[in-house]
Design goal:
single chain, mainly alpha
Length: 89
C-alpha cells in the first residue's frame, strides 16, 4: 500500500516537472486560429513583445501569407490591364 502511494506521488511529480519544464508547448486552439484569420495586419503585431517565439513565428507566417496574396492579386490585375491594352491594339 505504501509503495503504491509512493509510486503515484513520483509519477505525479514527474508529470508536474515535465509540464513546468515545457509550458509553451500547448495544443493549437482552433478558436484562436480562426480569430487570427479575421484580425487585420496591425492586430497581428499588437502585443508582439509579450508573445512567445512560436506565436511570433505563427503570426509572422500569417502576415507573410497575406502579403503574398496581395502581391499576387496586384500582379493578376496588372496582367489583366496589359491584356486589355494589347487587345485594343
Amino acid at each position: 500500500m505504501v509503495i503504491e502511494v509512493v509510486v503515484v506521488v513520483v509519477v505525479l511529480g514527474c508529470c508536474l516537472v515535465a509540464l513546468l519544464k515545457h509550458p509553451g508547448e500547448k495544443l493549437p486552439r482552433p478558436d484562436l486560429e480562426a480569430s487570427l484569420e479575421t484580425v487585420d495586419d496591425t492586430g497581428l503585431f499588437r502585443g508582439w513583445d509579450e508573445l512567445t517565439s512560436s506565436e511570433q513565428k505563427r503570426r509572422l507566417a500569417i502576415y507573410q501569407q497575406r502579403v503574398r496574396a496581395r502581391i499576387a492579386e496586384q500582379e493578376r490585375e496588372w496582367l489583366r490591364e496589359r491584356l486589355r491594352v494589347v487587345a485594343k491594339g
